[in-house]
Amino acid sequence: MWGDNIPLDRLKEKMTRENLWIYILSLLREGPKYPYELDSLIEKRFGWRPAKVTSYIVLRSLRSKGLVKMTKRRGESGRMRDYFEITDAGKEMLEKGLEFIKQTYEKLSGKSIC
Fold it and tell me: CB–CB of 42/49 below 8 Å?
């Protein structure tokens, strides 16, 4: 049968790597970012680091759905970079995702989040 941590490990995997989009949109709500910067911020703020190529794949998907847009800008180093920023549709999707998480927590815990 399952080891002691397997259910929790699976939950963590589903809530992090398999839902990277919500972490990305959350960070982009604060302002435009480039992909490598997003990876570093996810590690710093949320305590895990997505695979480098995974962020690019998720950003491409979010862009194709109109949830983020990309612009080329000169970064602090002087290099041209692809910067991503959240769109209004992305903000709406993020709020829906956060509301779903809140409702799920409240149902599971029996506690209301204000």
Answer: yes
Question: For 69-98, how does the pLDDT look when each residue is reduced to its tens digit (9 = 90+)?
Answer: 999 988 788 889 999 999 999 999 999 999
21 token code pair: 């989009």
Choose among 18, 17, 26: nearest CA to 93.
Answer: 26
Burial class (CB in 10 A: 0-12, 13-18, 19+), 100: exposed
User: Please, what's the b/e burial string for 5-41 (b: 16 or more CB within 10 A of its CB; e: otherwise)?
Assistant: eeeeeeeeeeebeeebbbbbbbbbeeebbbbebbbeb
Encode pLDDT of 15-65 as tens digits. Answer: 999 999 999 999 999 999 999 899 999 999 999 999 878 999 999 999 999
**Amino acid, single-letter form, for residue 48:** W
For tokens 């990309």, name the residue.
70
Asked if 62 and 90 touch (Cβ cutoff 8 Å), the reply is yes
